[in-house]
Design brief:
- The protein has 89 residues and is mainly beta.
- The chain has a single domain, classed as OB fold (Dihydrolipoamide Acetyltransferase, E2P) (Beta Barrel), CATH 2.40.50.100.
- 0% of the residues lie in helices and 47% in strands.
- The chain has no helices and 8 strands.
- The strands form 2 sheets. The protein has a 4-stranded antiparallel sheet with strand order 1-8-6-3, with no helix packed on it. A 4-stranded antiparallel sheet has the order 5-4-2-7, with no helix packed on it.
C-alpha cells in the first residue's frame, strides 16, 4: 500500500489566520483523487482541500477549529497497490 499525505498548500491569503474546518470525509472512508476531504477557513474564505490520490482516509492529524500553517500535514490516505476495492462501506 502507498501512503499519501494531505498537505496544506500555500493558499495565497497572506497573513490571515488559517483554521481547519469541517472534515468532509470520515476516517476509514474511501476517497477519489480530487474529491474534497477537508474545509479550510481563512477569514471569510472557505477552501476545500482535495484528496491527492484514490484510497482510504486512514488518519486525520488535525481537529476542526485547529490553527494551521502552510506545509502542515493534515491527513494520510492509503491506496491499495493492486487497485482492488479495499472493502464496502
Amino acid at each position: 500500500m502507498t501512503r499519501y499525505n494531505l498537505i496544506l498548500p500555500d493558499l495565497g491569503l497572506g497573513d490571515q489566520p488559517i483554521v481547519a474546518g469541517l472534515w468532509l470525509v470520515a476516517r476509514g472512508r474511501r476517497v477519489a483523487a480530487g474529491e474534497p476531504v477537508l474545509e479550510i477557513l481563512a477569514g471569510s474564505a472557505v477552501v476545500d482541500l482535495p484528496a491527492p490520490a484514490d484510497g482510504r482516509l486512514v488518519e486525520t492529524l488535525v481537529d476542526e477549529d485547529t490553527p494551521l500553517q502552510t506545509g502542515q500535514r493534515l491527513a494520510v490516505i492509503e491506496s491499495d497497490p493492486g487497485g482492488e476495492p479495499i472493502g464496502r462501506e
